[in-house]
Protein backbone atom coordinates (compact mmCIF):
# COMPACT_ATOMS: atom_id res chain seq x y z
CA UNK A 1 0.00 0.00 0.00
CA UNK A 2 1.04 3.60 -0.54
CA UNK A 3 1.20 6.16 2.25
CA UNK A 4 -2.40 7.14 1.51
CA UNK A 5 -4.92 6.56 4.33
CA UNK A 6 -8.59 7.40 3.83
CA UNK A 7 -11.62 6.88 6.02
CA UNK A 8 -15.39 6.75 6.15
CA UNK A 9 -16.78 7.97 9.47
CA UNK A 10 -20.52 7.33 9.90
CA UNK A 11 -22.54 8.24 12.97
CA UNK A 12 -24.57 5.24 14.23
CA UNK A 13 -27.87 7.11 14.30
CA UNK A 14 -29.46 4.63 11.91
CA UNK A 15 -28.68 2.50 8.85
CA UNK A 16 -26.90 3.87 5.80
CA UNK A 17 -29.10 5.59 3.24
CA UNK A 18 -28.45 6.49 -0.40
CA UNK A 19 -26.57 9.67 0.48
CA UNK A 20 -24.27 8.02 2.99
CA UNK A 21 -23.48 5.20 0.55
CA UNK A 22 -22.29 7.82 -1.93
CA UNK A 23 -19.89 9.20 0.69
CA UNK A 24 -18.69 5.71 1.63
CA UNK A 25 -18.16 4.69 -1.99
CA UNK A 26 -16.27 7.89 -2.84
CA UNK A 27 -13.87 7.51 0.07
CA UNK A 28 -13.35 3.79 -0.69
CA UNK A 29 -12.72 4.46 -4.39
CA UNK A 30 -10.22 7.21 -3.67
CA UNK A 31 -8.28 4.97 -1.28
CA UNK A 32 -8.25 2.06 -3.72
CA UNK A 33 -7.34 4.30 -6.65
CA UNK A 34 -4.29 5.52 -4.70
CA UNK A 35 -3.35 1.99 -3.66
CA UNK A 36 -3.91 3.08 -0.07
CA UNK A 37 -5.63 2.02 3.11
CA UNK A 38 -9.34 2.56 3.84
CA UNK A 39 -10.62 2.79 7.40
CA UNK A 40 -14.05 2.97 9.00
CA UNK A 41 -14.50 5.00 12.18
CA UNK A 42 -17.75 4.91 14.15
CA UNK A 43 -18.42 8.50 15.23
CA UNK A 44 -20.58 7.83 18.27
CA UNK A 45 -19.37 10.79 20.31
CA UNK A 46 -22.89 12.30 20.30
CA UNK A 47 -24.20 9.51 22.49
CA UNK A 48 -27.85 10.68 22.88
CA UNK A 49 -28.36 10.52 19.09
CA UNK A 50 -26.86 7.05 18.64
CA UNK A 51 -29.03 3.96 18.22
CA UNK A 52 -27.97 0.67 19.77
CA UNK A 53 -26.87 -1.80 17.11
CA UNK A 54 -26.73 0.76 14.30
CA UNK A 55 -22.96 0.40 14.07
CA UNK A 56 -23.23 -3.30 13.25
CA UNK A 57 -25.96 -2.61 10.69
CA UNK A 58 -23.74 -0.04 8.98
CA UNK A 59 -20.74 -2.37 8.91
CA UNK A 60 -22.93 -5.15 7.50
CA UNK A 61 -24.30 -2.81 4.80
CA UNK A 62 -20.78 -1.83 3.77
CA UNK A 63 -19.72 -5.47 3.61
CA UNK A 64 -22.72 -6.35 1.44
CA UNK A 65 -21.53 -3.69 -0.99
CA UNK A 66 -17.97 -5.03 -1.00
CA UNK A 67 -16.63 -2.02 0.92
CA UNK A 68 -14.43 -3.68 3.54
CA UNK A 69 -12.13 -1.66 5.82
CA UNK A 70 -8.48 -2.62 6.11
CA UNK A 71 -8.50 -2.42 9.91
CA UNK A 72 -11.03 -2.95 12.67
CA UNK A 73 -13.18 0.17 13.25
CA UNK A 74 -12.49 2.46 16.19
CA UNK A 75 -15.23 4.08 18.27
CA UNK A 76 -15.11 7.70 19.39
CA UNK A 77 -17.06 6.92 22.56
CA UNK A 78 -13.99 5.05 23.81
CA UNK A 79 -11.54 7.90 23.23
CA UNK A 80 -12.45 10.56 25.77
CA UNK A 81 -9.00 10.46 27.42
CA UNK A 82 -7.30 11.36 24.13
CA UNK A 83 -9.72 14.24 23.50
CA UNK A 84 -9.10 15.55 27.02
CA UNK A 85 -5.36 15.57 26.35
CA UNK A 86 -5.95 17.64 23.23
CA UNK A 87 -8.17 20.07 25.13
CA UNK A 88 -5.57 20.39 27.88
CA UNK A 89 -2.96 21.25 25.25
CA UNK A 90 -5.19 23.95 23.73
CA UNK A 91 -5.86 25.42 27.17
CA UNK A 92 -2.17 25.46 28.07
CA UNK A 93 -1.31 27.32 24.84
CA UNK A 94 -4.06 29.89 25.35
CA UNK A 95 -6.17 28.76 22.39
CA UNK A 96 -9.17 27.45 24.36
CA UNK A 97 -11.27 29.09 27.07
CA UNK A 98 -14.35 28.26 29.16
CA UNK A 99 -17.67 29.74 28.10
CA UNK A 100 -20.68 30.34 30.33
CA UNK A 101 -23.10 31.54 27.65
CA UNK A 102 -26.45 29.91 27.02
CA UNK A 103 -28.04 29.90 23.58
CA UNK A 104 -30.29 32.75 24.73
CA UNK A 105 -27.22 34.75 25.81
CA UNK A 106 -25.65 34.30 22.39
CA UNK A 107 -28.85 35.34 20.61
CA UNK A 108 -29.09 38.47 22.78
CA UNK A 109 -25.45 39.37 22.15
CA UNK A 110 -25.96 38.95 18.41
CA UNK A 111 -29.01 41.19 18.49
CA UNK A 112 -27.15 43.89 20.41
CA UNK A 113 -24.31 43.80 17.88
CA UNK A 114 -26.67 43.81 14.92
CA UNK A 115 -25.61 40.33 13.85
CA UNK A 116 -28.30 38.32 12.17
CA UNK A 117 -26.28 35.91 10.06
CA UNK A 118 -26.97 32.31 10.89
CA UNK A 119 -24.96 29.29 9.87
CA UNK A 120 -27.07 26.12 9.65
CA UNK A 121 -29.39 27.70 12.23
CA UNK A 122 -26.59 28.55 14.68
CA UNK A 123 -25.74 32.11 15.58
CA UNK A 124 -22.15 33.25 15.20
CA UNK A 125 -20.50 33.34 18.63
CA UNK A 126 -19.24 36.91 19.30
CA UNK A 127 -16.54 36.02 21.83
CA UNK A 128 -18.43 37.17 24.92
CA UNK A 129 -16.42 35.00 27.35
CA UNK A 130 -13.01 35.55 25.80
CA UNK A 131 -10.35 36.12 28.47
CA UNK A 132 -9.51 39.46 26.84
CA UNK A 133 -13.10 40.58 27.45
CA UNK A 134 -13.25 39.63 31.11
CA UNK A 135 -13.87 35.90 30.80
CA UNK A 136 -16.77 34.27 32.59
CA UNK A 137 -17.50 37.32 34.80
CA UNK A 138 -19.01 35.17 37.52
CA UNK A 139 -20.96 32.80 35.26
CA UNK A 140 -20.35 29.08 35.71
CA UNK A 141 -18.38 27.47 32.90
CA UNK A 142 -20.58 25.47 30.53
CA UNK A 143 -18.61 24.69 27.38
CA UNK A 144 -15.06 25.10 26.10
CA UNK A 145 -14.45 27.13 22.95
CA UNK A 146 -11.55 27.56 20.55
CA UNK A 147 -10.59 31.20 20.04
CA UNK A 148 -10.27 31.87 16.32
CA UNK A 149 -8.14 34.56 14.63
CA UNK A 150 -10.25 37.67 14.14
CA UNK A 151 -8.16 40.24 12.26
CA UNK A 152 -9.87 41.34 9.01
CA UNK A 153 -7.16 39.69 6.91
CA UNK A 154 -7.20 36.40 8.87
CA UNK A 155 -8.64 34.35 6.02
CA UNK A 156 -8.07 30.62 6.23
CA UNK A 157 -7.37 29.39 2.71
CA UNK A 158 -7.21 25.78 1.57
CA UNK A 159 -7.44 23.74 -1.61
CA UNK A 160 -10.15 21.20 -2.31
CA UNK A 161 -9.39 18.59 -4.94
CA UNK A 162 -12.88 18.93 -6.42
CA UNK A 163 -13.89 22.52 -5.61
CA UNK A 164 -10.56 24.28 -6.02
CA UNK A 165 -9.38 27.10 -3.76
CA UNK A 166 -11.63 27.77 -0.76
CA UNK A 167 -11.46 30.36 1.99
CA UNK A 168 -13.30 31.40 5.13
CA UNK A 169 -12.98 34.13 7.74
CA UNK A 170 -13.71 32.06 10.81
CA UNK A 171 -14.45 34.92 13.20
CA UNK A 172 -17.25 36.34 11.05
CA UNK A 173 -18.54 33.05 9.62
CA UNK A 174 -18.52 30.92 12.76
CA UNK A 175 -16.94 32.69 15.72
CA UNK A 176 -15.15 30.94 18.55
CA UNK A 177 -16.53 27.41 18.26
CA UNK A 178 -17.29 24.74 20.82
CA UNK A 179 -14.80 21.90 21.30
CA UNK A 180 -16.38 20.49 24.47
CA UNK A 181 -20.12 20.85 24.88
CA UNK A 182 -22.10 22.14 27.83
CA UNK A 183 -23.50 18.63 28.39
CA UNK A 184 -19.95 17.31 28.82
CA UNK A 185 -19.81 15.57 25.44
CA UNK A 186 -16.94 16.13 23.03
CA UNK A 187 -17.67 18.27 20.01
CA UNK A 188 -17.34 16.78 16.54
CA UNK A 189 -14.67 19.23 15.40
CA UNK A 190 -12.14 18.28 18.07
CA UNK A 191 -12.83 14.54 17.99
CA UNK A 192 -12.52 14.22 14.22
CA UNK A 193 -9.22 16.09 14.07
CA UNK A 194 -7.67 14.11 16.91
CA UNK A 195 -8.82 10.79 15.44
CA UNK A 196 -7.71 11.56 11.88
CA UNK A 197 -4.22 12.30 13.18
CA UNK A 198 -4.14 9.23 15.43
CA UNK A 199 -5.15 6.98 12.52
CA UNK A 200 -2.68 8.55 10.10
CA UNK A 201 -5.42 9.78 7.76
CA UNK A 202 -3.93 11.66 4.81
CA UNK A 203 -7.04 12.26 2.70
CA UNK A 204 -10.59 13.16 3.65
CA UNK A 205 -13.27 12.43 1.07
CA UNK A 206 -16.78 13.39 2.18
CA UNK A 207 -19.97 15.18 1.16
CA UNK A 208 -19.95 18.81 0.14
CA UNK A 209 -22.17 19.78 3.09
CA UNK A 210 -19.14 19.25 5.35
CA UNK A 211 -16.88 21.54 3.34
CA UNK A 212 -17.32 24.52 5.66
CA UNK A 213 -16.14 22.41 8.60
CA UNK A 214 -12.75 22.25 6.93
CA UNK A 215 -11.27 25.59 8.11
CA UNK A 216 -12.10 24.83 11.74
CA UNK A 217 -10.45 21.46 11.42
CA UNK A 218 -7.38 22.93 9.71
CA UNK A 219 -7.04 25.47 12.51
CA UNK A 220 -7.24 22.72 15.13
CA UNK A 221 -4.63 20.70 13.23
CA UNK A 222 -2.27 23.66 13.24
CA UNK A 223 -2.71 24.54 16.90
CA UNK A 224 -2.40 20.93 18.01
CA UNK A 225 0.70 20.46 15.87
CA UNK A 226 -0.94 17.72 13.78
CA UNK A 227 -0.28 16.84 10.12
CA UNK A 228 -2.35 18.55 7.44
CA UNK A 229 -4.73 16.45 5.35
CA UNK A 230 -5.95 16.72 1.77
CA UNK A 231 -9.66 17.23 1.03
CA UNK A 232 -12.12 16.22 -1.64
CA UNK A 233 -15.80 17.09 -1.21
CA UNK A 234 -18.32 15.22 -3.33
CA UNK A 235 -21.75 16.28 -4.64
CA UNK A 236 -24.71 15.77 -2.33
CA UNK A 237 -27.64 13.47 -2.90
CA UNK A 238 -30.79 15.56 -2.56
CA UNK A 239 -34.23 14.50 -1.39
CA UNK A 240 -37.50 15.30 -3.09
CA UNK A 241 -37.66 18.60 -1.18
CA UNK A 242 -34.34 19.70 -2.70
CA UNK A 243 -32.49 19.41 0.61
CA UNK A 244 -29.62 17.09 1.43
CA UNK A 245 -30.83 13.52 1.84
CA UNK A 246 -30.36 12.66 5.50
CA UNK A 247 -31.83 10.68 8.36
CA UNK A 248 -33.21 13.93 9.76
CA UNK A 249 -35.40 14.51 6.71
CA UNK A 250 -36.66 10.98 6.38
CA UNK A 251 -34.09 9.25 4.18
CA UNK A 252 -34.91 5.56 3.91
CA UNK A 253 -32.43 2.84 4.79
CA UNK A 254 -30.68 1.26 1.82
CA UNK A 255 -32.46 -1.66 0.21
CA UNK A 256 -29.60 -4.12 -0.12
CA UNK A 257 -31.58 -6.96 -1.59
CA UNK A 258 -29.70 -5.85 -4.72
CA UNK A 259 -26.32 -4.40 -3.58
CA UNK A 260 -25.12 -3.89 -7.16
CA UNK A 261 -28.12 -1.69 -7.96
CA UNK A 262 -27.43 0.41 -4.84
CA UNK A 263 -23.80 0.82 -5.87
CA UNK A 264 -24.74 1.73 -9.43
CA UNK A 265 -27.03 4.45 -8.11
CA UNK A 266 -24.31 5.76 -5.80
CA UNK A 267 -21.79 5.64 -8.62
CA UNK A 268 -24.11 7.61 -10.90
CA UNK A 269 -24.27 10.36 -8.26
CA UNK A 270 -20.47 10.53 -8.50
CA UNK A 271 -20.47 10.70 -12.29
CA UNK A 272 -19.45 7.06 -12.78
CA UNK A 273 -20.85 4.92 -15.56
CA UNK A 274 -19.52 1.47 -14.66
CA UNK A 275 -21.65 -1.18 -16.35
CA UNK A 276 -20.34 -4.54 -15.08
CA UNK A 277 -23.01 -7.03 -14.09
CA UNK A 278 -21.47 -8.35 -10.89
CA UNK A 279 -20.27 -6.61 -7.74
CA UNK A 280 -16.57 -7.37 -7.97
CA UNK A 281 -16.22 -6.35 -11.62
CA UNK A 282 -18.33 -3.24 -11.09
CA UNK A 283 -16.07 -2.07 -8.26
CA UNK A 284 -12.97 -2.72 -10.36
CA UNK A 285 -14.42 -0.73 -13.26
CA UNK A 286 -15.47 2.07 -10.89
CA UNK A 287 -11.92 2.31 -9.49
CA UNK A 288 -10.55 2.75 -13.02
CA UNK A 289 -13.08 5.47 -13.81
CA UNK A 290 -12.29 7.21 -10.50
CA UNK A 291 -8.58 7.18 -11.42
CA UNK A 292 -9.38 8.77 -14.77
CA UNK A 293 -11.48 11.49 -13.15
CA UNK A 294 -9.58 12.32 -9.95
CA UNK A 295 -5.94 11.29 -10.25
CA UNK A 296 -3.30 13.15 -12.26
CA UNK A 297 -2.47 11.52 -15.61
Word description of this protein:
This protein is an alpha/beta fold and 297 residues long. It has two domains: 176 residues, 3-Layer(aba) Sandwich (Rossmann fold); 100 residues, Alpha-Beta Complex (Glutamyl-tRNA Synthetase, domain 3), CATH 3.90.800. It is 35% helix and 16% strand. It has nine helices and twelve strands. The strands form five sheets. A three-stranded parallel sheet has the order 1-2-3, with helices on one face. Helix 1 crosses helix 9 and helix 6 packs across helix 7. The longest helix is centred in the N-terminal third of the chain and has 16 residues. The protein is elongated and about 65 Å long. The two termini are 20 Å apart. The relative contact order is 0.17. The model has no long low-confidence stretch (mean pLDDT 92).
Task: Outline the secondary-structure elements.
Blueprint: E1 5-8, H1 18-33, E2 37-42, H2 54-64, E3 74-75, H3 80-92, E4 96-99, H4 103-112, E5 118-119, E6 122-123, E7 143-146, E8 156-160, E9 164-168, H5 170-173, E10 177-180, H6 188-198, E11 203-207, H7 214-224, E12 230-234, H8 259-269, H9 279-294
Parallel strand pairs: 1-2, 2-3, 11-12
Antiparallel strand pairs: 4-7, 5-6, 7-10, 8-9
Helix pairs in contact: 1-8, 1-9, 6-7
Amino acid sequence: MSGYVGRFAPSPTGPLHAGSLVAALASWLDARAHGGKWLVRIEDVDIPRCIAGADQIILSQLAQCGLLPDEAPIYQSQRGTVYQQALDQLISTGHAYPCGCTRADIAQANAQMGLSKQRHGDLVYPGTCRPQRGGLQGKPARAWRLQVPDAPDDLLVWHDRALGEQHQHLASAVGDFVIKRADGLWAYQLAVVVDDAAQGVTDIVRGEDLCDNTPRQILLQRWLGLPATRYLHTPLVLGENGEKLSKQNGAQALDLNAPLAALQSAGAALGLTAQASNLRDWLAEAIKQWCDQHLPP
